[in-house]
Amino acid sequence: MTGFTGSPLDRVDKLRSDPEAFIRFTSDWRGRVLGLEGLDPMVSAEGTLVWKGMADIAANAELVLLGLINDKPHFVELTTAKGDVFRSPAIWMALSVLSAEDAAIYGTARALIDWHNSHKYCSRCGTESELFRSGWGRKCPNCGTEHFPRTDPVVIMLAEHDGKALVGRQSRFPPGNYSALAGFLEPGESIEEAVRREIMEEAGVVCGKVRYIASQPWPFGGSQLMIACVAEALSTDIILDTDELEAAMWVTKDEAAAALAKAPDAIFNAPPPFAIANTLLTRWVAGE
User: Fold this and answer.
1) Whole-angstrom distance, CA of residue 278 vs CA of residue 270
2) What is the tens place of the pLDDT at every residue in 78-92?
3) Containing domain of residue 94, as a range?
4) Which of 20, 92, 228, 242 could form a disulfide with 280 if both were Cys (CB 3.0 to 4.6 A apart)?
């Protein structure tokens, strides 16, 4: 299972468009609202998400229905707080202790908050839009246009050649950290084409066959779907696009395994377990 997947929430899509059901859920004393500090999750001493009671929430709070767990409604309150996962040590600490289920719940909530904060105005007429569908959409009161959360597809991949895989690092990464290369799919482009293009653009490596490995929702910097692949490299010379990467190198399976195990003699630091780049490296080392 990849990070941010395995949520226990029943999303009750059929009830989102029922205003009476939403009122019933918000009036349910058993309801829970996700505890946040800005955009970071509040974490209990036991390493679980913190949930607030309905009585702890202001009467004018804008709530989004995340779903039901054991028939109890769970919400997140919209906040205008801003956050950057790459500059928040708290978020990395939280994700290192949260269970997969809790991380998936938080990921859904975070993606929805970020979407609402960046889509407050109607893209057709510019009027400030309003929440509808239990918070899973916004509707323009002027022209009636309906807007819904979107997920942007991103390819994340290893190029492999003769038992080695290509990893790279961006300047914003902590010292010693390397990861798989990644980039957004462009309009009119297949997954395979995007994988080959991104590897060529970032590292100058020509690739052929591409195989799919796994996918993962990623809630930071907008809602993204990370599509993990491995590509067959037809060349090995690295020509860096220094606007994208600070460095790149070919690593063996033993070197990748050492990084994943956090061995003291590892030549690089692997991505954290909740990132699909970690899954990608792990499965590549295992020969998948």
Assistant:
1) 7
2) 998 766 655 677 888
3) 13-118
4) 228
